[in-house]
Design goal:
Elements (H helix, E strand, L loop, with lengths): L4 H22 L4 H23 L7 H24 L2 H24 L5 H18 L3 H4 L3 H30 L4 H22 L3 H36 L4 H8 L2 H11 L7 H19 L1
Helix pairs in contact: 1-2, 1-9, 1-11, 2-3, 2-8, 2-9, 3-7, 3-8, 4-5, 4-7, 4-10, 4-11, 5-10, 5-12, 7-8, 8-9
Amino acid sequence: MTLTWPVMAAVLFGAVLHASWNALVKSSGDKELDTALVHFLGSVVALPLLLVFGLPPVQALPFIGASLVIHIGYYIALAGAYHHGELGLTYPIMRGSAPLLVALFSGLVLGESPTPLAWAGILGITAGVAMVGLAHPGETLHHRKALAYAFTNALIIALYTFVDGKGVRTTVGAGHTAAAYVMLLFVLDGFPYSALVWSRRSPEQRRMALAYARRRWPLAALGGAASIGSYAIALWAMTRAPVASVAALRETSVLFATVIGTLVLKEGFGIQRALGTAVIVGGVMALRLG
């Protein structure tokens, strides 16, 4: 398996989609509710697509079950990170640390070892992400809760990357499409976390949540569709290229999140983040050549 230009272009587009729905959650007044709403409506969007693509094989169901459990932890950590820290701080740490963990353990879990040049690309992307996310180290260290949520989520992201990478390859190996795995995952994924958020609210808070959802649902539905598209592209790419390379390339979404955070959410930007951006681009090119 190699990372071809078409696969690379697709994953970069998926990265734009991923940064977009994360910015939507960060811009909201109720990040926990918006996270639940985005993924609940994502399930609604995925349902008719599941009818089109069909169910994945039985062999893939254990991977989907494990992924659903892991993703609950992901959403909890995601909402916590955005509650305690800026998008420009938490998003790069969450997304930048995960591909390094995937690369370190991909040989053991998947039997795939990155080439030296691919390793250079992975390390370049990770270093660039750190530069972007830690543009103000002294200030960053004061956001301990945000950092704890972000690093925890990096571990969770690496874990579900392995599970879903193996699950989608099992699906394709059995003669089904990658979309069958992805759509069933998303149909089921939107309900557990949404139910958890709903159960933790009082009757009055639930009435407010319904009113909020009526105002917010068009944007949340777009966010859900972007989430599906982003992850569907990534999992499809993992059937055609090494998982560690796809995982690292997907985290170029940090670049797009930084731009969105700066232009739309009015978060800070500086020389170090600009240099980090250049390092990430260099890492992407090394990853492609590797």
